[in-house]
């Protein structure tokens, strides 16, 4: 599936919400961005027409990023609960928020939700709660005082083993530890422009009732975008374009 970005933006969200083929063609909503010439665009030859088209490096169904999960019992990351990714992740964040809410039938907790593009260009979302959120704060604070944000660096997340003993029984669990390193400015710019031009959010974790602590690049969906959730989910189930 490829995501093409036209220089002329459309005002009709229905075009993006109900595509008729497995190739989803999206135009960035009018959010004050540059559109054509954005750092996330690359030129690609359209074999059907012989013309060069501006194509996004990243693939994303608005409101439905790829779900990356942190299994705190096993200390492993995975895609959708099935495809293993190992015990660590490295990425430049597109957007994030720290918030308190009752989501995923887990009761009201403090959460950190980060969005990023994986090595194949798919926009992903990963959630953390508990001590892992406290550890993320410990990374955000020194960056803030260096006039940086998570969007300016490569963030590395590693599962760290912990043990606790109660009534003579030892239990093992894992929390996320965060560190960072310098990022390529061109990669930072591509993600900055993409978060500017597209609403970055996840339908499954948006309730409209969150107590927000910090956010960057995260866009609360409009009523129309939220109502388009089901059509977008149907498109996500389509087979990849040949």
Walk me through what this model shows.
With 242 residues, this protein is an alpha+beta fold. It has a domain at 66-218. Helices cover 19% and strands 38% of the residues. The chain has 5 helices and 12 strands. The protein has helices at residues 14-17, 131-145, 185-197, 223-227, 229-236, and strands spanning 41-46, 51-56, 66-71, 76-79, 83-86, 88-91, 93-102, 108-117, 123-129, 153-166, 169-182, 211-216. A 7-stranded mixed sheet has the order 5-4-3-9-8-7-12. It is globular, with a radius of gyration of 19 Å. The protein starts with 13 loop residues before the first helix and ends in a 6-residue tail after the last helix.
Number of helical elements:
5
The main β sheet shows up as:
7 strands, mixed
How much helicity do the residues have?
Answer: 10-25%
Give, in order, the helices and strands: HEEEEEEEEEHEEHEHH
Radius of gyration: 19 Å
Molecular shape: globular
Kindly report how far apart the N and C termini lie. 8 Å
Beta-strand percent range: 35-45%
Give the strand order, joined by hyphens, for the main sheet. Answer: 5-4-3-9-8-7-12
Number of strands: 12
Low-pLDDT runs of 5+ residues are: 1-26, 230-242
Mean pLDDT: 82
Helix/sheet category? alpha+beta
Layout of helices and strands, plus pairs?
Elements: H1 14-17, E1 41-46, E2 51-56, E3 66-71, E4 76-79, E5 83-86, E6 88-91, E7 93-102, E8 108-117, E9 123-129, H2 131-145, E10 153-166, E11 169-182, H3 185-197, E12 211-216, H4 223-227, H5 229-236
Parallel strand pairs: 3-9
Antiparallel strand pairs: 1-2, 3-4, 4-5, 6-10, 7-8, 7-12, 8-9, 10-11
């Amino acid at each position: 599936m490829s995501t093409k970005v036209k220089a002329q933006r459309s005002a009709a969200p229905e075009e993006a919400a109900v595509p008729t083929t497995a190739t989803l063609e999206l135009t960035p909503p009018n959010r004050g961005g540059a559109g054509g010439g954005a750092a996330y665009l690359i030129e690609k030859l359209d074999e059907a027409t012989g013309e060069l088209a501006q194509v996004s490096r990243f693939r994303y169904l608005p409101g439905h990023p790829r779900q990356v999960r942190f299994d705190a019992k096993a200390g492993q990351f995975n895609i959708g609960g099935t495809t293993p990714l190992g015990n660590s992740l490295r990425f430049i964040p597109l957007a994030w928020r720290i918030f308190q809410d009752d989501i995923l039938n887990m009761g009201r907790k403090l959460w950190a939700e980060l969005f990023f593009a994986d090595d194949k260009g798919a926009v992903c979302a990963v959630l953390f709660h508990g001590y892992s959120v406290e550890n993320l704060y410990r990374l955000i604070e020194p960056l803030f005082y260096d006039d940086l944000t998570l969007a300016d660096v490569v963030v590395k997340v590693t599962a760290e083993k912990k043990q606790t003993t109660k009534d003579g029984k030892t239990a093992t669990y894992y929390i996320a530890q965060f560190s960072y390193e310098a990022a390529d400015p061109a990669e930072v710019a591509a993600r900055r422009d993409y978060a500017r031009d597209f609403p970055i959010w996840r339908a499954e974790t948006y309730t409209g009732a969150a107590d927000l602590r910090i956010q960057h690049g995260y866009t609360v969906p409009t009523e129309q975008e939220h109502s388009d959730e089901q059509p977008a989910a149907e498109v996500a189930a389509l087979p990849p374009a040949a």
